[in-house]
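TA notes. Do not distribute before section.
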Amino acid sequence: MSSWQITSVIVLLGIAAIMGGGGWLLLRYSRQRKHMIAERLSALKRATAEKAAAEKALADKAAAHSAAIARAAAERLAMKRAAVEKAIAEKAALEKAAVEQAIAEWAAAEQAEAERARQQRTSEDRREIEADEERLRAVEDAIAEWVEAEREGKQLASATLDQPQTKTASRAEAVHQQVRSTAEQVEKEIRDLEFIKNRIEADVDFLPIEFQQTIDDWKAGKILRRNTFDDLKLKFRYKAYSIEDGYEMLYLYNEWLSQQRQKLRVFIRLLGTQVDKSESIQSAIEQTESMERAKYLEMDVDVIFTLRDIRAILEKLIGMETILKDLETVCRRRSEQIISPSWEARGSL
C-alpha cells in the first residue's frame, strides 16, 4: 500500500471521525435544546398557573372584602330599619295608649254622668212611688169614707122614708176611676218605651252601615283624605259611645212594671177579693169576676167593667215585658259595639 493510499485512508477516517463527532455533538445539542425548551415550557406553565392562582386569590380576597362590606352595610341597614320600626312601634303604642286613655276618660265621664242621671231618676222614681202610694192610700181612705157615707145614707133613708134618697159613689166606681187613670198612664209609658227602644235600635243598626259607607267613600278618595284608617275607627268608636245607653231605662221600667202589677193587686183587693202573693193576677181577676157574676141580680156591673179594664192593663204590661226584652237585646248590641266593634275586630281594611 502506498503512502498516498494510507494518507487517503487516514483522511477518510479523520473525516468519518469528524462527522461522527459532529453528529454526536449535534445530537447532544438537539437533546439539550429540547430539554431546555421543555423546562422553559414547564416554567412557563408553572408561572402561568402561579399567576392564575395569584389572580384567583386576589379575586377571592376582593370578593370576600366586597361581601364583608355588603354584609356590614346590610347589618347597618337592618339595624337602622329595626330602630325605625321600634320607634314607629313605640309611637303607635303611645298613640294607642293616648287613645285608650281618652276613651277611658270619656267612658268614665259618661259613667259618672249616667250615675248622676241614675241617682236623679232613682230619686224622682222614689218620689213618684211615694206619691203613688200616697194617692193609693188616699183612694182607699176616700173609698172607705164613701162606703161609710153610703151605709149611713141607707140608714138615714130607712129612718125617714119620706126623705128622698141621695145616690152616693160606690167603691167599684171609685176603683174604676183609678183603673182608667192607670190605663192611660200605662198606655203613655208604652209609647215612650217603644220610642226609646226604636231610637237606640236605629242608632245601633245604622252605625255599622254608616261606618262601611264612610270607609268605601274614604277608599275612593271622596272624603276625609287626610285621615287614616285608625282615625276613622276612633271616630266611630266615639260614635258608639255617644249612642244612648238604655240599661238605666231597662232597670227603671222593670221596677215600674213591678209597681204596676202591685197596683193591680190593690185594685182587685179593693173590689173585695184578697189576692195571695203566690196567685197570679189573671187568676185573681177570674176569681173576682166569678164571685161577682154569682150574685146574679145583685151583680155590680162596675166591678165587671173594672175587671175588664184591669185585664186590659195586664195584657199591656205583658206586652211591655216583650218590649223590655227587645230593649235588653239592643242594649247588649250597643255594648258589644263599644267593647268589640266589627271594625276593631277585623283590624284592617
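Switch to the second chain here.
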Amino acid sequence: MTAEAYFHGRATGAVESPFKGSNQLFAGQRLDGQIITSAAYEHCTFANVSFKEARLESGRFVNCVFVACFFRKTDIRSCNFSSCRFIDCEFPGASFSGCDFRYTRFVGCYIPVDDIEHNLPPEPNLREHLSRNLAREAALLGDPHAARRFRLLEVSAREKNGWAAVIGKTKWYRDHYDVRARLATLLRLVGSILNRVLFGYSERLWVLVRNFVLATFLIFPSFYFLSIGGLSGSTLTGTPVQQSTVWAAFEFSVKNAVIGALASQIDAVTFAVSTAAAVQTVLTAIWASLVASYLFRWSLQR
C-alpha cells in the first residue's frame, strides 16, 4: 500500500485549537514552535506537516498516519501513538518520554535507538515486533549500528515473550499456549539462550573472542587434564603425555583450536576425550566463521 492510499476519503482540515479531529487530512502545515496539549485525533492523515521545535504533550493519536512529517527537535511527552504509521518522516534531535507505540509501524524512517528504547511497548511480543520493524528500516536506510541495536532489543524481547509463554505468566498466555506449544517455545528459548551465551547472536564480537579464549586456554584444557588417561603420544618437546600432563592437556586443546594446524603428536584414545575434542573443533569452526562474518560486515560499513 502506498502513502497516497491514506489521503482518500478524508476531508481536509487544519491542525488548530482545540486540536481534535477524526477521519481528516491535514497537509502542508507548519506548526513550528507550537505547544499542543491534550490533542485527540483518530483515523487522520498528517502529510508534510512540520512539528519543528514544537511540544506535543498528553496527545492521543489513534490509527493515524504521518507522511513526510518533520519532527526536528520536537519534544513529545506522554503521547499515545497506538496503531499509527510513520512514513518517510524525519526525527533529528526529537525527544520522546512516556509515549505509547503499541501496534505502530515505521516505513522509510525510524526513531534513533536512544530516543525510543524507553518508549517501546512493555509487552514482550509487541516490543519484539516493533524492534524488528525498526531494525529492518534502519538497515534499509544504511545505519547498520542502529539496526544491530534494534535486533538485540528484538531478541531480548523475544526471550522474555518466550519465557512468559512457558510459565503461563498471564491469562492470555495460558489461553493461547497449550502444553505442546509451551514445550516447543521452551526448546526455542533454550536455543536462543545458548546462541546468546556461546555466540552473542553473531552481533557481539567480544563474546566470540571471549568464549574462544576461555574454551581454548581454560575449559577444555581442564577437562583434558582431568581425563589425561584418554590421551596418548608425546608433546612437541618429545615428552610423553603421562610425564607432562598439564602441558599435554594445554597442547592438545590448542591443537583442536587451530583445527590440526599444530603438528602435535597427542591423540585422543577414549570416547569421552574424542567427543570433547570433536565438540571443541566444531565450536572453534563456528566461532571462526562468525568472527570472519562480523569483520566482513564491519569492513563493508567503513
